Amino acid sequence: MSKDIVKIFDTTLRDGEQSPGASMNMEEKIQIAMQLEKLRVDVIEAGFAAASPGDFEAISNIAKEIEHSTVCSLARALSRDIKAAGDAILHAKRKRIHTFIATSPIHMQYKLQMSPDQVIKKAVEAVAYAKTFTPDVEFSCEDAGRSEMSFLKEILDAVIAAGATTLNIPDTVGYRMPDEMGAMIRELCDFVGDRAIISVHCHNDLGLATANSLASVKNGARQVECTINGLGERAGNAAMEEIVMALKTRNDFFGGVDTNINTREIYPASRLVASITGIAPQPNKAIVGKNAFAHESGIHQDGVLKHQETYEIMHPEDIGLDNADTIVLGKLSGRHAFKEKIESLGYKLSDEELNQSFARFKLLADKKKEIFDDDLRAIITDEIVQVPKTFELKNLQINDCMTGIPSAAVTIMHKEEAITDAGIGNGTMDAIFKTIDRISQIPGELKDYKVTAVTQGKDALARVTVKVNFDSELPAFTGHGLSIDTMIASARAYISALNAFVYEKGNKSKRDRGGI
Ligand code: KIV
Ligand code: ZN
Fold first, then answer.
1. Which of 204, 250, 329, 463 gives a 20 to 30 Å CA spacing to 82?
2. What's the pLDDT score for residue 473?
3. Mean pLDDT for each consecutive 10-residue tract of the chain (516 residues)?
């Protein structure tokens, strides 16, 4: 008997990226897509092809890389969006176009300024056009959570006739209560029958995204849209790890409905997304939070030691947490052991990337006694998911900031030349950033600064994430920097944002000249 499976449609790279401050560069998106494939997600929504040339390029590169998961692009119900989506996923082994239009009275009247009949017409045209690129077409009724049932049925009937194979019912503003959501999905599943798969996409504005998604599965939805760590617009989307582990742990309650997810890849995926976006899940976040499997009180510790299941309904190893804190390598480890370890963490590196990462590892091993998996992930993310290093930090000296005026001397490599300058600032960091501005002659405005410790201990690596605005007409650029020394990590992060800006500027002028 075949298993009853709920498809997992991951939208970390699309809706997740819409999270304030979560924008990612192409290399970072590819790394996440590869991890999503290791997780065995059914569908990867790789982006919104028409949103920008960068999005288009990222989707098209992901489409070429991914072997098993379906690669999908979002598209508004507009022919130019659908064409961009179809072109971006052209090389995917399995491809899907996801087109949407709003169906709630408030969105149709104020946002679209269209009548319900016009909306249906647009939706049908969009689906029919998308079918010319791929047979796998998903249609979403944006703001379905506040749409009228009779209208939903009417538009779904029409798009099924036009060829939609998955019908997504988003609770776009996180408005529904679980019982209501379940009842809506039950009625729509009964209405649609086996003509298409019903999917849900729940936002977390009232903290109910997971509950609403699960209520939908219980009532017949067979695709759930979600993101790693619950990343997403405003309060986020339903968290994949919560949905998958709820279905696994309470399989009895869900009548045997399961997912295709390899749950042991959940924790690595969560770490990867957190380190790339600089947005770490809160410590008490279900499944992947730092404390999710930590037992603090004596009574609990005693219980777990006597019998794990007294206080644990899941095993840490089920999500791949069993060896997360294992000391993996030391300073005597060779290139071969390093390569094997990196491969076991799921990275595919070119020889050059491996050499660079190994050199970084050796430098770190000289300073840090114990190197953990998370240290290696951080090094690799830092080493290989960068845009070209137009500027590179070569040296940094800071003064004794307790007694003197905060100042920094910085040496940066640029076009094979070492440029040194020094400057003062309101604090050491300010002095460093101002000096970098002087050297690059591209002044930036720091919009956000975050520092996290990659692992525990006084000698932990610091990972700094900054957002810097270099041009008022462009969004702020994100940069990451890694070092045992927070000031060095900060300088690297600032330079990495600068490099992202220079790279985007270069691409933009090529595009303007018709080069891309
Ligand atoms: O929340 C939403 O409605 C969406 C759609 C585009 C699916 O993200
Ligand atoms: Zn959404």
1. 204
2. 83
3. 88 93 84 95 98 93 97 98 98 98 98 98 98 98 98 98 98 98 98 98 98 98 98 96 98 97 95 86 94 78 80 91 62 83 78 88 83 83 76 90 83 96 92 96 93 80 90 86 92 94 79 51
Helix ranges (H only) for 250-334 are 266-277, 298-306
What number of other Cβ atoms are within 10 A of residue 154's Cβ? 15
Ligand nearest to the CA of 74: 1
Within the chain, all domains assigned CATH 3.30.160.270 are found at 391-512
Cβ of 15 closer than 6 Å to ligand 1, yes or no, is yes
- Give the C-alpha distances (Å, rounded to integers) separating 36 from 71, 214, 270, 346: 11, 21, 10, 11
Q: In angstroms, what CA-CA distances link 329 with 11, 332, 375? A: 34, 8, 10
Calpha distance 120→114 (Å, rounded): 10
Cα(14) to centroid of ligand 2, in Å? 9
Distance 142 CA to ligand 2 centre (A): 8
Beta carbon of 139 within 6 Å of any ligand 1 atom: no
Listed in order, the ranges of the chain carrying CATH 3.20.20.70 are: 7-277
Q: Which CATH class is domain 391-512?
A: alpha beta
C-beta of 73 in contact with ligand 1 (< 6 A): no
Total-model pTM:
0.82
- The residue contributing the CA closest to ligand 1 atom 5 is 142
CATH superfamily assigned to domain 7-277: Aldolase class I (3.20.20.70)
The amino acid present at 195, given as its one-letter code, is R
72 strand-pairing partners: 45, 96
171 lines ligand 1 (CB under 6 A): no
**How far apart, in whole angstroms, are the C-alpha atoms of residue 248 and residue 261?**
10
Q: How far apart are CA 207 and CA 130, in angstroms?
A: 34
Cβ-contact 369, 391 below 8 angstroms: no
User: What does DSSP say about strands 7-10 and 223-226: parallel, antiparallel, or unpaired?
Assistant: parallel
Distance CA 477, CA 498 (A): 7
Of all protein residues, the one whose alpha carbon is nearest to atom 8 of ligand 1 is 15
Quick one: which of 240, 269, 218, 188 has its CA closest to 15? 240
Work out which ligand 1 atom sits closest to the CA atom of 15: 8
Largest CA distance in the chain: 75
